[in-house]
Amino acid sequence: MTSQNPFLARRTLLAAGLAVPAAVALASCSSGSVADEASSSSSGGSSSPAAGGDGDFDAILPDGDPVAFSKDLVATSLEAKEGFVPPTDGPSAQQAGATIAFVGSDLSNGGVNATAAAVEEAAAVIGWTVDVFDGQANPQGITDAMNQAVTSGPAAIIFGGADPTEQAPAITTATDAGLPVIGWHAGVLTGPGNGLFTNVTTDPLKVSQLAAAFAVADSDGTAGVAIFTDGQYAIAVQKARAMEAYVKAVPECTVLTFEDSPIASADQRMPGLVSNLLQRHGEDLGYLLAINGNYFSGAAKALRDAGRSPDGPPKNVAAGDGDAAEFQRIRSDDYQAATVAEPIGLQGWQLVDEVNRALAGEDPSGFVAPPGLITKENVPDGDVFDPDSDYRDAYTTVWNG
């Protein structure tokens, strides 16, 4: 994989009217804004009502010997060689010189910003320009950005990192104007739905599977884990419950506690929460599994104060999103062992290809790139997970006809 971040760029934020550098850290990419003030509280070791609910996770559970299955899954993902090659058929480039709009839920969110930059990179190759609109991390701001995008008269709109059900009227306004809307991390499901031509994202259950499999494989099937989620967000609860189901499917692994604690206040809450867990579970606490890496800067303080080694136990493992801070912690053995990262660059190029398919009157590609497990063994030198699958050349060949 490349060690260089190809997605650093400067752009004009059309909604804000000023130029700023693109963020280099990939922050949370879920469809809800984690910057919003959270109201849920820690469960103190039991599931809160907000974090409750069952799911059908059979498709991601280990098959046969759970430890061997987990080790194979981990090894395959670390190689990052499978699933990252996009379709090699599709329409040639449509509407030369067209302008498309990228509406980001929050351009201060590194994942959203890096995706916008990847879209700009791909658009330049296909022969388009991109206008970027900032939703400024609030529902009204996203609606305003969508309305501005429609008014600007683009050929299509990419709708990034926001809830499509919350923004259903704005999406309807766009589609009624004849503009295809392509989602990026717009809800939980991949593919068409919610008024979107398609939604480009990884499968959140695959993300959870990889994080849980790492704990099982690393412990040889004896992991004692604590799981952290934020009950405000359905996708966060789903990911956490999927990790719980995977660990519980391994006979000698144990879910010691399932904690509902808001992401927005993780730095403040996690030191006390983790200190309590260390006291309650002692050496049985081998792994902290969280729905993203934002929990671990706070967890590190408690582990440091308790005299725990930076390389564990307990080992910190994030089920997304693979940001620069996580990579640095992993790289330097600083209280994080692994994360599951999004292939942001590939997704940006896929978004442009999906726009091209929509403009050509064809169906979506159906392509879903997998996430990638990142450990010290394969952590990038730079700030993004960018699998070496020659996807740029593949898409360029298709567009050139």
Detailed description of the structure:
By secondary structure, the protein is an alpha/beta fold. The chain contains eleven helices and 13 strands. The chain is globular and about 60 Å long.
Radius of gyration: 21 Å
Order of helices and strands: EEHEHEHEHEEHEHEHEHEHEHEH
Shape: globular
**Could you name the ranges where pLDDT drops below 50 across 5 or more consecutive residues?**
1-6, 8-54
Strand content: 5-15%
SSE order and pairing:
Elements (H helix, E strand, L loop, with lengths): L9 E4 L4 E4 L44 H14 L19 E6 L5 H17 L2 E6 L4 H13 L5 E4 L7 H9 L4 E4 L13 E3 L3 H15 L5 E6 L4 H15 L5 E7 L5 H16 L5 E4 L5 H10 L9 E4 L5 H8 L6 E4 L2 H16 L12 E3 L16 H9 L2
Parallel strand pairs: 3-4, 3-5, 5-6, 6-7, 8-9, 8-10, 10-11, 11-12
Antiparallel strand pairs: 1-2, 12-13
Helix pairs in contact: 1-5, 2-10, 3-4, 5-6, 7-8, 10-11
